[in-house]
Aspartyl/asparaginyl beta-hydroxylase domain-containing protein
Amino acid sequence: MIKYCQINKFFDVTPVLHELQQFDDAFWKLHFQVKHYSGNWSALPLRSIGGDVNNTFIAPNEAPVYADTIFLQQCPSIQKVLSFFECELLAVRLLKLAAGTIIHEHKDADLCVEDGLVRFHIPIQTNNKVSFNLDGTLLKLDVGSCWYMNFTLPHALKNEGNDDRIHLVIDAFANEWVQQLFTTPQYLQIKESATPEKFDVAAQLEIIKNLRLQQTPIGHQLADDMEKALQQKLNIGPHSK
């Protein structure tokens, strides 16, 4: 199970910052998960359910249809960034973590590549007093970098700086292009798997089974990695397949 990785792609976000000047505070909507944070955490929807600029919800029904909002239509530089991602985009938002805001530790269900979904973060504006803790690992996310993180794991954030932190956050289906992205070293700078010891044996075997049922190259590779680690831990021979 991949914990996080940095995609070997940097974006020039200076034009994006210029585009954001057209949106004052009235355009930003407070994040709907109010129990998860203290302070001001807000979103500017670029793709939302039905293209609604007032809707920041992510998949509140079983078959949501996402569409570009008028905000995205006014942002050609962001459109250029999104063109890099050769996969079906779901929700796309700008998320702003105001100075002094804390996002308490929580988990997001079904948001990992192993379950067929990915969430990419591209920092547009940040400061050196922003901390991003993912399952015990403190990540430093530079402006213009691109990251995948497994948000089914516990994560928490703090902005103890004087400036707002703004990220472009992209949810997408993990299609073949995404799978190649995750398995091609030239596109990957950092890769870390979640520690197998965090799960009991039965849970690990269930994860391995589900990965193989996906019948995808990345699913088989991750299953092989987990199976090998489990065999070494238990000092047993290979499982029959």
Remarks:
- The first strand starts at residue 2 and ends at 7.
- Helices lie at 14-20, 70-73, 76-82, 176-183, 201-213, 217-234.
